[in-house]
Amino acid sequence: MMAAAVAATAMTMVSCDGGSSADLKDGVDSMAYDLGVGQAPNLKQAMVMQMGVDTMYLDEFIKGMKEGAVNEADPKKEAYMKGLEVGAQIQQMAKGLSNEVFAGDSTKTVSVKAMLNGFIAGLKGTATMTPEEAFADFNAKLEPIRNANIEKQYGENKAAGEKYLIENAKKEGVKTTASGLQYKVLVEGTGALPTDTTQVKVNYEGRLIDGTVFDSSYERNMPFTVDLAQPRVIPGWVEALKMMPAGSKWEVTIPADLAYGSSNMGQIAPFSTLVFTIEVLK
Question: Which residues constitute the domain of residue 193?
């Protein structure tokens, strides 16, 4: 009986983080404790993988966790704790922007202090521009940097496309429009020309200049409909379709600036010149 009593006492008194004890006064306390123990592995994984906390500083993490839990009802302390969380997020934002601005060069970084000061000025209302103006200014500064980095990375692809266009323009039957779009009539259509509000039903095959097929309605056995009132296709397609009478089949070569430009579309790399076989069904 005495051994059982000792065991029961041990179950209700638990030593935590090297000194302080937690009284489990009843079954509900025990249930809450069990939940904490059960969730601890998930918390530890999140601490390392999502929050980026080094396990070497586990004691400091626990200290902050205890302060946050114990002082939850203190608005001032809670505001401070939330500020710490946001500060860590701002640091991650600065790292992400550094990676984009400096193309992964780890020796160069965007100033966390400058970003932080921007947040503070915005929160306190002391900034010299509106949030909309600030975003516009940010994008105006970032866009040329982003494009320069992409062009540096995919410059060879851009040059290959430009060379292909020069050579393709010399081929028999190829015509070049004022925009730089190139086309060759394979089948002369005799139907009506589409208007700005026409729905055009087509079959097509899209290729890179090395011949790689990246999309084909023929393979899917599923024609594609383009509503010229709201095209939702690349500009080169719109220009070509408006010149193609029903029944036409053309080979259309589209420069990068009339296709996806500097955007990375996965299989279609930035600055890709694209070649389409387009057949207007109706």
Answer: 156-280
Single-letter amino acid code for the residue at 157: N
Please name which of 62, 72, 112, 67 lies closest in space to residue 92, comparing C-alpha atoms: 112
| Domain presence at residue 238 | yes
Put simply, whether the predicted model's pTM sits higher than 0.70 gets the answer: no
Distance, in Å, from the CA atom of 221 to the CA atom of 229, rounded to the nearest integer, reads 25
Residue range 100-134, pLDDT digits in tens: 888 778 888 889 899 999 999 999 999 999 999 99
Q: Which helix (H) or strand (E) holds 253?
A: strand 249-254
Within its chain, how far is the Cα of 84 from the centroid? 26
Specify if 260 maps to a domain: yes
10 Å CB burial of residue 231 (0-12, 13-18, 19+) is middle
Q: Compute how many other C-beta atoms are within 10 angstroms of the C-beta atom of residue 170.
A: 7
Q: What is the tally of structural domains in the chain?
A: 1
Our CA dihedral for 60, 63, 65, 68, rounded to 10 degrees, sits at -130
Which amino acid type is present at position 127?
A
63 assigned to some structural domain = no
Residues sharing a CB contact under 8 Å with residue 224, sequence separation 6 or more, in sequence order: 201, 202, 203, 204, 217
CATH of the domain at 182: 3.10.50.40
What value, to the nearest 5°, has the Cα angle with vertex 30 and ends 27 and 36?
145
Confidence of residue 19 (pLDDT cuts 50, 70, 90): very low
Q: Is residue 9 part of a domain?
A: no
Torsion of CA 113, 116, 120, 122, to 10 degrees: 120
